[in-house]
Specification:
Order of helices and strands: HEHEEEEEEHHHHH
Number of helices: 7
Largest sheet: 7 strands, mixed
Structural class: alpha+beta
Number of domains: 2
Distance between the termini: 87 Å
Length: 254
Amino acid sequence: MTRRTACFGAITLGFVLADDFIGQALKFISGFFPAGCGENDKPDFVLTGNPETDSSMAENATPALQSMLKKGEGSLTFGLSDKGILTLAAEKKSGDTKLKVIQPNGKSGYFVWGLAGLSPVVKVTDENGATLSAASGKKLQYAILPFLSPPAAGKISSLDASSVFASDLVKILIAILAVWLGFNIAGWILGALGYLIVVALLILLASSVAGFFEPVRSWVFEYTGIDLRNVGEFLKELGGKVLEIIQKALEDLG
């Protein structure tokens, strides 16, 4: 073996050893991160605070949300500008599907219907059904009635009853999300998320097998004239009106 061949062999071996060392080092480092880390961190939808794009996104996300709730499993992720990623997930519990919302920091809650006396409420609960509280100590339970537009009694006779009622519900969700998330975020982002959660709550209210929800369905019909047994038709009426629904909610909240 010539001196030149020996040197070349030593250099080659050096590269092999270095490559093996780097490979082992990378494998060691990767052990500190979850499998797939960085592969799935791109959200399904992105919210920016722009009225046109956020309302369009909410409308475009609705079919995927409906499909997820129908299956009773799966999740959709939403980029909140520079605030991280929020997740809407469907979970089967006691025969019914529930909507679970997961904050960017991992904190989660179930957005559900409830009753306070004879009036419906929307609330955020833990996995055991206990109502969660905001950092201030305020219970995350909001009655629907104070948020509803006039008339104060009887059915809404307007041809836009569906969009008016949807906007009223979005107001509640904006109020809940603003408190529950605990950080400053653009109103239109809250509005788009609120709209999607309203759609989810109405779908789940219409499809729930639990007898507990019948009084809520009846209350909605008596107050608005909207029959949620035909929730598909109701949601179809909202098509193309998402921007004005969110805009009205934000304007009413001031």
